[in-house]
């Protein structure tokens, strides 16, 4: 029997060619700016919804960001992966 690990075909790996979009409910504050560390902050059409868009190195960094957002009382609406489109 082969000792190599089998990976289901429906699992994709996150790499530096993928960016995150994290949607939160709240306003832009200095605390938010300090936590997102270089991610883009975009105001959405809904009054208090923001999109945080940027690359994170790994899932540990994502979890740290999500915990930081929770600590400053931002409601996390969604987390999505946005692939980079190459021309």
Mean pLDDT rating: 83
CATH superfamily: ACT domain
- Share of helical residues: 10-25%
Q: What's the CATH class label?
A: Alpha Beta
pLDDT below 50 for ≥5 consecutive residues: which ranges? 1-12
Do you know the CATH architecture?
2-Layer Sandwich
What is the rounded Rg?
16 Å
Number of helices: 2
Q: How do the strands line up in the largest sheet?
A: 2-3-1-4
Shape: globular
Largest sheet: 4 strands, antiparallel
**Annotation, overall tally of beta strands:** 4
Number of domains: 1
Terminal CA distance: 42 Å
Beta content: 25-35%
Q: Order of helices and strands, N to C?
A: EHEEHE
What is the CATH topology?
Answer: Alpha-Beta Plaits
Structural class: alpha+beta
Give structural notes.
This protein has 87 residues and is an alpha+beta fold. It has a single domain (18-83), classed as Alpha-Beta Plaits, CATH 3.30.70.260. Helix content is 23%, strand content 31%. It is built from 2 helices and 4 strands, in the order βαββαβ. It has helices at 30-36, 59-71, and strands spanning 18-25, 40-43, 49-54, 75-83. A 4-stranded antiparallel sheet has the order 2-3-1-4, covered by helices on one side. A hairpin with a 5-residue loop joins strand 2 and strand 3 (49-54). The relative contact order is 0.29. Mean pLDDT is 83; it is low at 1-12.
């Amino acid at each position: 029997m082969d000792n190599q690990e089998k990976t289901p075909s429906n699992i994709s790996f996150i790499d530096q060619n993928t960016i995150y979009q994290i949607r939160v409910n709240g306003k832009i504050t200095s605390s938010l700016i300090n936590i997102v560390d270089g991610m883009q902050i975009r105001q959405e059409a809904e009054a208090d919804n923001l999109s945080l868009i940027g690359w994170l190195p790994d899932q540990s960094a994502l979890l740290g960001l999500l915990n930081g957002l929770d600590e400053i009382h931002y409601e996390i609406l969604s987390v999505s992966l946005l692939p980079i489109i190459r021309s």
